What we know:
This protein has a domain at 20-65. The chain is 10% helix and 17% strand. The protein has one helix spanning 43-49; strands spanning 24-29, 57-62. A two-stranded antiparallel ribbon has the order 1-2.
Amino acid sequence: MTATSTQAPTTTPGTDWVDPREQIEVGVLLPNGRLVGRRFVDRAEAEAWARPEEGEQVVEYNLVCECNV
């Protein structure tokens, strides 16, 4: 009799695991401290959308720890 393992593999062949701590989002921070309710493809798009003359700032943050980068 041979022993077999019933433990599932930790990775699936053909898939790339991405560390969620390295997934950085770009957003626009309003002067009142809230983020705008839309997603941006990259920093350039957020900078084109933001109005710095009105106190808006482009920020990068991580959704896991919700901290500025």
